Every structure is written in structure tokens, then in C-alpha cells.
Amino acid sequence: MTRIRPNPRRPYENVAVAVPVSIPYVRYSVESAHWWIARALSELTKRAGIRPADIDGLSVSSFTLSPDTAVGLTQHLGLSPRWLDNIPMGGASGVVALRRAARAVEAGDATIVACVGGDANQVDSFRKLLSSFSRFAQDASYPYGYGGPNGSFALLTDHYMRSFGARREDFGRICVDQRTNALGYPHAIMKKPLTMEDYLGARAIADPIHLFDCVMPCAGSEAFLVTTLDIAKDLGLPHARLASTIERHNAFVDDPIQMRGGWAVDVDELYAMAGMKPDDIDLVETYDDYPVIVMMQFEDLGFCKKGEGPDFVRSHSFTNDGNFPQNTSGGQLSAGQAGAGGGYLGLVEALRQVTHTALSKQVPDARTALVSGFGMINYDRGLCSGAAILEGVAP
Amino acid sequence: MTDPIVRPPKKDPQKVTRPPELPPLQRSRAALAMSAAASRGAFELQCCKACGAWMYPARDACPECLSVDLAWKPAPDGGEVIAETTIRTTVDLYFRQRTPWRVAMVKLDCGPSVVCHLHGDVEVPGRVRMTAQLDKGGNAVIMALPAKRTPNMADDPELRELTASPKHRRVLVTDGRSAVGQAVVEALVNAGAALVFVGIAEPWKPYPGEDRLKAHENVQTFAFDLTDTTSVQDLAGEIGGKTDILINTADHVRPGGILSAPGMITAKDSFDVNVFGLQRLAQAFGPGMVGRGADGTNSAAAFLDVLPVYALANTPDFGIHSATAAARLSMLQCLRSEMRAGGVRVMSVFTGPIEDDWRQPVPPPKVAPGQIAKAVIAALEGGIEDSFVGDVAKDVATRFRQDAKVLERELGA
């Protein structure tokens, strides 16, 4: 059989990302996903100075729209896009939405794409969401103790600790620094400082996962616009240039348990396309539903080698004024996880940082950001991974 | 080493009985095949007929070669546990009542990685032996056991959820006059049952084995007539609230088919004991057992029926008897679904012809009462839904699974 070599990807020539919108989260809300998404889109149009009818592309990610999808949402919200996407990729949704929207804009299939991720969180909706998450989870993970994602990540964390000598304190450093960042971000759900003592003393949820290793599910939404550089400029919007992206699903099927994500397959392409090295990145927004996956991203995104995550964490500080600013609005661990909005949180925050419109503490001289997404524990591991590099454009 | 469970104290009547929540019930259709294998005590996984790859979780296509030609086969049960956790918090009502709950990731020797229940005696990392068992909801789950037997292994709380062990439980055996009933009582006493209640029809008439039966300290006999609804209800009124396992060993057997033995009276008698007797038992004892499905160490655990394997296909020399068995099986299927609400298992122990006076003309091999008793204990301790005791029963079961119509011709030849 002929072996087919993958086509080289064309660089992004003319893609602007603008108008970072975060609708403040609440722990529980009676409102629906439609309501949260509408609020984000309304804010998006107001801040962009456009009419809703100017949105001719729409990308939606939400777990709680059912029985609707993006289609039903167009009629519900009175939008008439000529390009429509529905991305059910949880924590990878933001990066994947951006990738697709970017190509739509470059090809002229859409002029202004609104990308939005958000979810409702009514009392007991988390339990209902878990029970129908995926066929493999239904058949082969939830009948076993029903830990949900806590149980799955407990196994991955246990294995990572055994393999690479990571200690709870190492994960604690990530969580504690992110909490410091969250204290400067007005929308963060967590408003109290977190000390290493608090972290280590927290109650066990699913060993070795303890309370502060877990995100707080909540309701909320996040959004941004994708358009061309000239339109962004004409509208007078602070914006970033899209430098590169990657996406991968179900990588490393032969690993008996997840020790790396799909980033490790494509990371060279990510930097090559952007013409950058890891050292050129000013801030990083990792996907942080649990700190172990943050540590894996440091490795798989090229900041250190596989297995060096614990040492990397011990020798860096992750606050906005530290030597490796990371999850600068507190990440999901401290800002909260608004369902699929969690896949947008880092992207929206990165966009604020590189356009110097931060609501959290501004990372000094931030120009480039790497944003990473990870999602969908279909059975035993997260299947979707993606990453993007944004570069702020001087006004 | 597992701590041995101790006999629970007398129940405090003021305390609320723990409601019998069930573990997550929903499964894909493909996954039900694993439950079917586990109901017979087998550990089976899917294997691709095209490329030979083993796979898990249950699929509709092979992840190695995309073939849709998949078969469930007995799988190698060895593996290496590579990670563990202890779940302490969950939103699921069943597991909330049972935390902490140990769970593992096991890399099977045949390839796939499996999330599974983890026996308390397993060291991580280490070798394990995998078993598929039915959970309280009647679905197969996989559990990793120590590679070698450990002391009190069956008392592990997670494993005990997956069995109906008679240890410390109170058991009713319905027919103490028969050799089978007596053998079952004896075996239950030896297996650690706390109390064995034994039903005796027409107790004023002496019967062989009576002295031996009554000599056991933990055995109590009761006047009991399966064909009398009042008698069954009376006994349920007396011991129904503390019957954790019910074992029906009654069987009214007479030779003859439909044309060869035209007696309606005999047929009615057979149905009255074998079919309606089962119904009376279920109606009198079932609701109480369902309500006590999660009532601690001696929760209600199983309703077990010992029935002829000719429930699967008729043997015309005992044609009416076979018909009662078929009706009985159908009743058990109905009851299994109804008792699931309480997490109480309905078990069938299918036997070949038993060595007794009515079956003298039947050629060997025949089943001895002691074999049946052993199979009953094995079914309870192994949590096995369908077991087949004796060579004839195993043979009929194999033929039935291959082709029920061919079996009908063979038995009717």
C-alpha cells in the first residue's frame, strides 16, 4: 500500500482574535445554557460595536443545551449565520473552535465568527450530566465507584506519582500559585487565599486527589470573536494574531494508562508554524481540571522532558509576576469550571493578557501566549487535545 | 489480609433500614453480552474474528482493523494492576452508601486496560486475577482479585456485594423432607449460615433424615405446605422479615408425556407445587426481601430455585414435568426483573435427573443430592445466576446455546 504523507499545513495569514468575554460564574443557577450563551453573545456584540446580524459565523460548545444543538440556538437567538459549528469537545472546545473559525474566516466562508462556550449548572445537573456522558463511561467506568472525572484522574495521578516521583506538594505548588492569580481576577469563584498547608490538609476525594485538586462545577459562559486582521482594526478592537494551532484525538492508544496527551504528537508543528520556541512564550494557559494534567502539559508542550514535570514545578513559580506565568486568571481550579466554558477560560484570559486588557494582574510585557485544551474522558483518559499560540498586535 | 466479617447483632427495630439503592444500571446492548457470560460465572471479553485483537470496553467494531465481526470468548484472566484509587466522595446514591471504595486500572495480559473493582488484599503494583461478576443491578462488573487466595478473601466488602454468600445469613429451604433439601441444609450450615429455616410438609408424618436434620443447632423446622397459600403466608409472617436467602428445592415429579399419561390430576399437582408454589413463595417473601436488599451484613441477597434442566427443552418421557419446569423458568425470569429493584438476585440451579424413586427408569449419569447442595453453595458464594449441575444439565445447556431447535429434536427422538 502507498504510504500517505500528511500535507504540510498552511500558516495563518490573516486571522485576528478579539473581544474576550467572560460572563461571571455562579455556583448554581436556575438559568439555562441558552441564557448563558445569549448573555455572552450580547456582550460580545456590544463590546465589538456590531449588530447581532453581523455575526455570520457561530461556533457553540455546551453540554447542557439538550435537546438543542447550535442549530436550535440560531432560531432561539434570532441569528442567521452562513457558517455554523457545534463542538462537543469539552476542555478542548475553545482551541478547536478557534481553529475551525480561523479557516472559515481565511476562506471567506464567514466574516465574523462568534465562538462561545458555556453551560448551565442547576442543582443536581452535574450528576445527570455524568450519567449520560459517553457509552464507554456508562458501560465501563461509572459502574466502578462512580467517581466521575475525580476517579479517572485519581488513577492517572496515582500512576504519574508512581512513575515519576511526583509528590502531593508538587501538585500543591500549581494549585496555590493559581489561587494567588485568581485573587486578582474579579470573576473568580474562589476568593480566599490557599496555603500549601490548606492544600495538604484538605480532605481526600479519591486518593490521591484531594479537595483542592478538583474544580468547582458552576454556571457561566465565555466567548471571543474571530475575524480578519483588517476588520479587527477597522472596528478598533484590541486583538491578537493567531500564530499557530494543533489538534489531536485519541493519541497513544498503546499507553496502558494516560501518561501524555496528544500535544506530544504535534508540538513540533505548533512551534514551527508560529516560528517560535518554548522560550518565546510569555505566558501559558493550560487546561487544569486537575493539576496532574497541567504537569503533563508542561512536558508535552516542550517546556521540559517527560518525567521532568515535578522538577520543573519545583523550580518555577506560576504567579502572574513569577518566572512562568500560568493560568493567570486562576484557571478552572480557582476561577471555576462552567462546563464547556472551561475549554474557553484560558483562551479568553490569554487574549486579555496579550492585548493588555487583563482583568487579573497584567503579566508585564506579555506579547505571546500559549493556550492549551484537553477534554473528554470518554473511558479512562482524555481524548481531545489542542493548543494555540496567540500574539498580541500592537494597537 | 481481609478482616473476617462478624455476625451482626440483632437489628434495632427503631433504626431505618438502608434503602436498596442500585449501582448505575444503564449499559449498551454490546455490553450485555459480558453480563450474560458473568451470569454463568465466565470471564469473557470481545475478540476480533478478523485480526484476533482483544478489546474492552464492549464495542461494535474492532479498534485495530475496523472489522465488525466480533465474538465474546473466555478471556485470559491474568493482569497487572498499575494504578489504584479509593473513592471517598461520589454523587451516586449506591456508592455513597458504601464508600470508601477501592478501584484500579489493570493492564490485562491479553492487551486492554480495564477500570475495575479492587479487592482489599491486592498490592499495587502487582499481579491480579480478573473475575466478572454481576453487581446488585444485575450487570457484569470486573473485579481484580489477588493472584493467590488470601485468608477471609470472600469477606472483602466489595466482593461480598457481588455475591450472595450464606455466611452469617438466614436461609429458608422449602422442602426438608427431600434428600436434596436435607443436603442443601447441611451444606448451608457448613458454609456458615447463621440460621436455616426448613419447611416440612405434613410434619406429623416421619421421614428419612429427620433426626439428623433436627440435630443441628442452627436449624429450625416449620410446618409448611407450598400448595397452601395460607401456609406460605403464615410462614412469611413468622420469618419473612429475617429471610436473607430463600432456596426452593421442592419439585413434584411424575413420569409421562401429554398423550402417554392422560391424568389431569397429576398434571395439576405438578403445576401446583412447581409453578404456583414458586409464585406463592415469591409473593409472600419477595416484597420483604426487596425491601431488605441493602440491610447490612445479613441483607436479603438471593432467591434461588433448583429446577430441572428440561426447563430449556422438553424431554417427552417426563413431558408434563418438563412443562412445569419451563413455566417455572419463565416465572424466574419475571421475578428476576422484579426483585432487581432491591438488588436481590434470582438464581437458577438447573439439574439433570436426580437419583430418586420416580426416576428409576432414567439411565445414568444422574445427580446425587450432595452435588446439588454443592452447586447451590457455589452459586451463592460465586454470585452465579445460572448454574448447571451434573453432566446431563451441562450437556443440555451446551446444546441449548448451540441450537435450541436441534436440542428439541435430540430430546424428542
Automatic annotation (TrEMBL), chain A:
<protein>
    <submittedName>
        <fullName>Acetyl-CoA acetyltransferase</fullName>
    </submittedName>
</protein>
<dbReference type="Pfam" id="PF22691">
    <property type="entry name" value="Thiolase_C_1"/>
</dbReference>
<dbReference type="InterPro" id="IPR055140">
    <property type="entry name" value="Thiolase_C_2"/>
</dbReference>
<dbReference type="InterPro" id="IPR016039">
    <property type="entry name" value="Thiolase-like"/>
</dbReference>
<keyword id="KW-0808">Transferase</keyword>
<dbReference type="InterPro" id="IPR002155">
    <property type="entry name" value="Thiolase"/>
</dbReference>
<feature type="domain" description="Thiolase C-terminal">
    <location>
        <begin position="268"/>
        <end position="377"/>
    </location>
</feature>
<dbReference type="GO" id="GO:0003988">
    <property type="term" value="F:acetyl-CoA C-acyltransferase activity"/>
</dbReference>
Automatic annotation (TrEMBL), chain B:
<feature type="domain" description="ChsH2 rubredoxin-like zinc ribbon">
    <location>
        <begin position="36"/>
        <end position="67"/>
    </location>
</feature>
<dbReference type="InterPro" id="IPR002347">
    <property type="entry name" value="SDR_fam"/>
</dbReference>
<dbReference type="Pfam" id="PF12172">
    <property type="entry name" value="zf-ChsH2"/>
</dbReference>
<dbReference type="InterPro" id="IPR002878">
    <property type="entry name" value="ChsH2_C"/>
</dbReference>
<feature type="domain" description="ChsH2 C-terminal OB-fold">
    <location>
        <begin position="72"/>
        <end position="131"/>
    </location>
</feature>
<feature type="region of interest" description="Disordered">
    <location>
        <begin position="1"/>
        <end position="23"/>
    </location>
</feature>
<dbReference type="InterPro" id="IPR022002">
    <property type="entry name" value="ChsH2_Znr"/>
</dbReference>
<dbReference type="InterPro" id="IPR052513">
    <property type="entry name" value="Thioester_dehydratase-like"/>
</dbReference>
<dbReference type="InterPro" id="IPR012340">
    <property type="entry name" value="NA-bd_OB-fold"/>
</dbReference>
<dbReference type="Pfam" id="PF00106">
    <property type="entry name" value="adh_short"/>
</dbReference>
<dbReference type="Pfam" id="PF01796">
    <property type="entry name" value="OB_ChsH2_C"/>
</dbReference>
<dbReference type="InterPro" id="IPR036291">
    <property type="entry name" value="NAD(P)-bd_dom_sf"/>
</dbReference>
<protein>
    <submittedName>
        <fullName>Short-subunit dehydrogenase</fullName>
    </submittedName>
</protein>
